[in-house]
Amino acid sequence: MAETRSTVTSPAVPASASAQARLAAAASVLGVRRINGLLPRNRAGILAGRGLIASIMAAFGPTLPGTHVQAVRSGAVRGEWVRAAGVPHGDRAIYYVHGSGYVVCSARTHRGLASRLSRATGLPVFVLDYRLAPEHPFPAAADDVTAGYRWLLENGYEAADLVIGGDSAGCHLGLDLVLQNLGSGTPQPAGLFMFSPLMDLTLALAEQRDRRSPDPMAPARTGRRLIELYTRDEPESSPRLRLTLPPGAALPPLFVQASAGEMLSDDARHLRDMAAAAGVRCDLELWPGRIHVFQALPLLVPEAAPALRRTADFVASALAEANSVPRERVS
User: Fold this and answer.
1) Number of domains in the chain
2) Which residue range(s) make up the domain with 249?
3) What is the pLDDT of residues 52-95, one digit of tens each?
4) Do the domain assignments include residue 319?
5) Which residues lie across from 205 on neighbouring strands?
6) Which residues are CB-contacts of 255 (< 8 A; sequence separation ≥ 6)?
7) Where is the Alpha/beta hydrolase fold-3 domain (predicted)?
8) pTM of the model
């Protein structure tokens, strides 16, 4: 059964995975998982991995027709605005942080997902192109995510009009951002939604699950090797790697979706439990199936569309709640 504490009402989280999603997972174990497991951790292997994931994203999550894309190059901030057909460039937006182990993806690979998020929410989506490892190790990506958020605030957006989204490692970066906001006094966004969140950068939780049921996308050891290209010599106990939520932290509401059978499902549960202990609202949905970040692959996993509609419900409610109370304007 799906595990959920969400207050959104429709469509319902299904009780079982579709036949197409089950077939896709089985095929991926025999194909994508094996290829990813064999790629060496050198420049050629990294380039091959980047190409493989880009091809999968383009084939099974193409950009919607009529989508408007605007490149951003502003100081250290790189990325692109993505607006589905008919979506205006208004005063509210989604700030999206892509995943794939700090090494593989880009704003371009996630353009299809961003276009669907834009259509579902009616909002423009700014997808950050943060610097990738191994060329740029920790804390380059985290610093770029912070810079992107502050750039949005400096360019007319108020924090209460922004919702942050991310997948996989992008969720870790998004959570790091709101924790950094606590220390700096930077206003928090209205909410934070996460797809298949990576929380334990040692992948100890993921490895336990991967041994019980092989993840369709990649072995846990492959994911760990990617992450180590980013973390390098930084201690595992570093507070920006091993994220914790302080009790009573003034954080925005969190909305988490993951596949119940993927290797990061226990990371999602860990995040929910950590948030509950800190008194932070966190709605968790575990969708039947095994595909990591299934929301990005609608032609492969039919559940992607209803999952994005539920995400859009969260975005709308978070913005409404944040704008129901007086707020200070960022100068």
Assistant:
1) 1
2) 29-75+109-150+184-323
3) 999 999 999 999 999 999 999 999 999 999 999 999 999 999 99
4) yes
5) none
6) 6, 191, 192, 193, 194, 282, 283, 285, 311, 314, 318
7) 95-295
8) 0.94
